[in-house]
Design a protein that fits this description.
This protein starts with a strand and ends with a helix. The longest helix is centred in the last third of the chain and has 18 residues, at about 140-155. It contains one helix and twelve strands; from the N terminus they run E-E-E-E-E-E-E-E-E-E-E-E-H. The protein has a twelve-stranded antiparallel β-barrel. The chain is globular. The protein has one helix spanning about 140-155; strands spanning about 1-5, 15-20, 25-30, 40-45, 50-55, 60-65, 70-75, 85-90, 95, 105, 115-120, 125-130. Helix content is about 10%, strand content about 45%. With about 160 residues, the protein is mainly beta.
């Protein structure tokens, strides 16, 4: 399954549109005014289905992920010098990126790829392609990608 993640250019808070392979909107993401990043994910009918919320006052950037009201896990940036790495306390997943922080891979505890994320260049706003092996993992992988993008925005 492939998702296209596009940040909206003219928005006061973080907002994104997520499309499927046919160009249909699958999810919308709206940033909420809060201490730290708080992103709400909505389905095509406007129902809130997930949240990505930054934990403030931590040594390394950390985000909590919720599916509805249920806590799924936390993603935390690891202290590295050349390639970004993120530890996830969900299903033994781990994320590693390339030096330029454009491409990432989410792998399970056995090292099998769950999702491959690549940044498309030459767009006005951040645009990512998320290739997910199991469609059931698509929303959760998307939430971790949102956390990484929010962390990168915080640094800049």
């Amino acid at each position: 399954m492939r998702l296209l993640f596009k940040q909206r250019v003219f928005s006061w808070l973080d907002s994104y549109d997520i499309y499927d392979e046919q160009g249909n909107t699958v999810y919308t993401v709206e940033g909420k005014l809060s201490w730290g990043h708080c992103l709400k994910i909505f389905d095509v009918y406007g129902n809130e289905i997930g949240t990505v919320k930054e934990k403030v006052l931590t040594f390394m950037p950390k985000f909590e992920v919720y599916l509805g009201e249920q806590y799924l896990g936390c993603i935390e940036k690891e202290l590295t010098f050349f390639k970004p790495r993120y530890d996830i306390d969900y299903n033994g997943w781990h994320i590693e990126g390339n030096f330029l922080e454009w491409d990432y891979e989410i792998v399970d505890h056995r090292g099998n790829p769950v999702a491959v994320i690549s940044k498309e260049l030459f767009h006005w706003a951040d645009t990512y392609v998320i290739d997910v092996g199991n469609p059931a993992d698509a929303l959760i992988a998307l939430m971790f990608v949102l956390a990484i993008d929010a962390e990168k925005c915080s640094r800049k």
